[in-house]
């Protein structure tokens, strides 16, 4: 995570979790949207947790390991990644994006967290 990441600095306040082994800490955040697998059909979804490098998405069908996913999420916009973990009704993706796009995602997540901390609501 870049040292300039304001989102990353805010997450340090949560402290490291013994169970958290990811390089970039994911935070619980439910954002509605839709996703497409390689077949091109769209399906409804909601995120379970997010970070600047990956996210878990609740939705069905669940694609195959390594399959490309494009998601359109409220407040984050277009996200692209590859499936790195999966279950019956959710999958986790590692984001595929330029460093600039990852920084914008980071900033958007931070803005959502700041708004919800002040009593606002995340997109549902």
Explain what the structure shows:
- With 124 residues, the chain is α+β, with helices and mostly antiparallel strands.
- It has a single domain, classed as Beta Barrel (Thrombin, subunit H).
- Helix content is 21%, strand content 35%.
- It has 2 helices and 7 strands; from the N terminus they run αβββββββα.
- It has a 6-stranded antiparallel beta barrel.
- A hairpin with a 3-residue loop joins strand 5 and strand 6.
- Helix 1 packs across helix 2.
- The longest helix has 19 residues.
- The chain is globular, with a radius of gyration of 14 Å.
- Unreliable stretches (pLDDT < 50, length at least 5) are 1-20
Fill in the CATH topology.
Answer: Thrombin, subunit H
What is the assembly state of the chains in this entry? single chain
Order of SSEs, N→C?
Answer: HEEEEEEEH
Specify the overall morphology: globular
How many domain units? 1
Quick one: CATH class?
Mainly Beta
Widest β-sheet, arrangement of strands = 2-3-4-7-6-5
What is the terminal-to-terminal distance? 27 Å
Could you tell me the radius of gyration in angstroms? 14 Å
Number of helices: 2
The CATH H-level superfamily is predicted glycosyltransferase like domains
Mean pLDDT: 84
- The CATH architecture would be Beta Barrel
What's the total count of β strands?
A: 7
Short synopsis of the structure:
The chain is of the alpha+beta class and 124 residues long. The protein has a single domain, classed as predicted glycosyltransferase like domains (Thrombin, subunit H, Beta Barrel). The chain has 2 helices and 7 strands.
